[in-house]
Design a protein that fits this description.
It is a single chain. It contains 10 helices and 7 strands. It is α/β, with parallel strands linked by helices and 294 residues long. It has 2 domains: 171 residues, Protein tyrosine phosphatase superfamily (Protein-Tyrosine Phosphatase, Chain A); 106 residues, Four Helix Bundle (Hemerythrin (Met), subunit A) (Up-down Bundle). Strands 1-2-3-4-7-5-6 form a 7-stranded mixed sheet. A hairpin with a 6-residue loop joins β2 and β3. α3 packs across α4, α4 runs parallel beside α6 and α8 runs antiparallel to α9.
Length: 294
Amino acid sequence: MKIFLSGCLLLAACGMVDNVSRVTDDNIDSLLALEGGIYTGAAPADAAAFAALAALGVNTVVCVDSVQPDIELAAEYGLSYIHIPVDYDEINEHALLSIKRMIVERPEDVFYVHCHHGKHRGPAVAAIAWRQRSGCSSDSSLKVLELAGTSKAYPGLWSAVSNWQDPKAPEAQWPALYAVAQIESFAGGMAKLDRNWDHIKLLHKNNWQVPSSHPDLVVVNEARQTRDLLSGCAEGIPAELAGDINFEKRINQSVALADDMYQALVHKKSEAVEDSYKELKSSCVYCHRKYRND
């Protein structure tokens, strides 16, 4: 395993020198080291990546992607996970309070924060965690995004880092930290599914290629998330719809169609992708018209 530091940025802030360095590692893409025990980069792809993180001294991995992290493989290398999914348009109060809790309650931990590519959401959350831990300036933390290559197509991420202020909510209101994030309710799951479906429509419009306007999307991951969110909603049907045979049939059919779409994308079967997408879209439209309360 080869590791070396390059592209070091020395930044004066808060009366101290803040250090952000690019780290080259054979097993981890887009790796950056922030002063104070915080790293950020791409999602660990295999056992070698988790071993490399452990060798760096990391003991807590923070996933900000919506895809479920591989907590079992991480545990084999002595690493625990915290899962704080964030959106591209903002880092909301729930996420900010989760970041604060992990920094306050784990002062000695070395964190590795990742999204999928390690270029956008991961560096933004890492920069905020760095501000929370060190009190470094806005200018210093924005250098993390610059070095990571965070796209200006995500102004909400840049704004979240630039305008961050220490959340003032009392400890009793801090969210619980989970290795795998919980979907809080059927309505919450459907809200996440709405955002995910916007991504699916964008990918479909672009012939299932990643659009320049949203460079952090991963086609198969978005499709897998569609399936998993639908499956979670199917397992948590609210009381007012429980026992509605037609609704249960429809949502289970949607789960199956979402899986068909995901599998077709994985195996690059373009006709099957198109067919399952159209059927899933039609199923969603039907349920929204009949059951949705806006």
